[in-house]
Amino acid sequence: MDTVASQRHLLSAKDLSLSQILEILDTARELGRITDGPMKKLPTLRGQTVVNLFFEDSTRTRLSFESAAKRLSADVINFSAKGSSVSKGEGLKDTAQTLEAMGADLIVIRHSAAGAAQRLAESGWVSSSIVNAGDGTHEHPTQALLDAYTIRTHFPECENSFSGLHIGIVGDILHSRVARSNVLLLVTLGAKVTLIAPPTLMPVGVESWPVDISYDLDDALTSLDAIMMLRIQSERMSELFFPSEREYARDYGLGNLRLNLLKEKAIIMHPGPMNRGMEISAASADNRKSAILEQVRNGILVRMSVLYLLLGGNPIPVEGVLV
Ligand code: CP
User: Fold this and answer.
1) How confident is the model over 103-120, as pLDDT tens digits?
2) How far apart are CA 67 and CA 61, in angstroms?
């Protein structure tokens, strides 16, 4: 069956069919509708344990998975590599097996190595469901899902297909797992996607991706319905990819002049954390077109939906019946 429940794990946006994406987005909306009412917390995952296994830093993803699990009444164990026995040499297998022995039903993993989530899912080390919360420069599927959810709320006419929408993804595509997952998801949804970056920040082989490519932000700007600005990931850069921060901001930043050229209904997105003044000006980040904090709020609903569907939660209670 083509449902999310038929999968044990969420490792990559490429594993999701159109109907599974819509199932996650629709379920997120329903969960939001219910928890916006008097019932803030649902009992659907009572007795289940979600482990946040984070080997890399995170604010939004870790906190929103924690919030999502708690809103569904799951127990949550948070693991951060900093301050753990990883510093004594403990590896992924022993760490994951230790956490499963503490009762994990689902492990949300963030790791600096591309493929870490898949390794954990396919190794046989643990029997828990695995959700990829970002593996190196490879993928971040729940970020792409919350981005799609956010776009859908602004373009309700595109509820079941993003055909007709033009989405620009701008900046450090080379190091961006958010860009990779978004390309896969947005193309499945039918959107036209344009990647915009200096040649040095485009991945090798990008010509074979199902997207348009541009090296000139001003060329694409006025036709975009959503513009996703990406963070310059200095921590993953071992060489110089552009002459100076000032030149990068001038050529590829969403500054105040470009802000005025966006379509009236266009939205500004950023997965966070932001480098204000670099890829995005403060005026753009705080502009009425900015959906950046909506993305954060929607992240909780989308992650509730993913946890709920993968863990086979009890039926969503009718509002007011279960308190
Ligand atoms: N967007 C995102 O993954 O943010 P964090 O690194 O704060 O989790």
Assistant:
1) 999 999 999 999 999 999
2) 10
